[in-house]
């Protein structure tokens, strides 16, 4: 399966909302989402919880890769919603590590309104703190192996 396709399941809730990954590495995770009804609050703008979901998902995947495909656990997320994204608008999400320690990682996640090529205006900025390097439970080994395979293709 193409990691850039809508069916690629690195994070199930993000896939259900239509999020499509572009980059997945230990130093950068990014992707795109079109704001549909599924992602909106009652005033037809991107729900703040969806922005937080994107932040948690991108930071966790990046931290998991940076920790050598060990299990990670998000322990804190803070988010500032600085601008709304309206129904129908395109959103670009990018994430990068601020600090990668043996136990704790901190990732920054920024959401932008965008067209095909340019980041136009920032929607939100998040910091996600994660505990990394935890043992992977047997039931999750397959999905981490699959992620490793996809990352090598990107
Ligand atoms: C909160 C802000 C409006 C504050 O703006 P600020 O004063 O910091 O800065 P500016 O005045 O320069 O404006 C920046 C930017 O904000 C937009 N904006 C400003 N005023 C308005 C307005 N009255 N209406 C719409 N948009 C406004 C404007 O686009 C400006 O952008 P420019 O491109 O012109 O520079 C602002 O920070 C802001 O809008 N932040 C985003 C807020 C947001 O989208 N929050 C997340 C969604 S809220 C949510 O999730 C939610 C969920 C629910 O389940 C709900 C259920 C029931 C009711 C409400 C719910 C709900 O809100």
Automatic annotation (TrEMBL):
Gene Ontology, cellular component aspect: peroxisome
Biological process per Gene Ontology, one example term: phylloquinone biosynthetic process
Gene Ontology MF annotations: hydrolase activity
Recorded coiled-coil stretches: none
One Pfam family named in its UniProt record: 4HBT
Keyword field: Hydrolase, Peroxisome
Domain of life the protein comes from: Eukaryota
InterPro entries: HotDog_dom_sf, PAAI_dom, Thioestr_dom
Location within or outside the cell: Peroxisome
Pathway: Quinol/quinone metabolism; 1,4-dihydroxy-2-naphthoate biosynthesis; 1,4-dihydroxy-2-naphthoate from chorismate: step 7/7; Cofactor biosynthesis; phylloquinone biosynthesis
Domain Thioesterase: 44-117
Primary location: other
Gene3D superfamilies: Hotdog Thioesterase (3.10.129.10)
NCBIfam families named in the record: unchar_dom_1
Family designation: Belongs to the 4-hydroxybenzoyl-CoA thioesterase family. DHNA-CoA hydrolase subfamily.
Subunit structure: Homotetramers.
Protein name (Swiss-Prot/TrEMBL): (rape) hypothetical protein
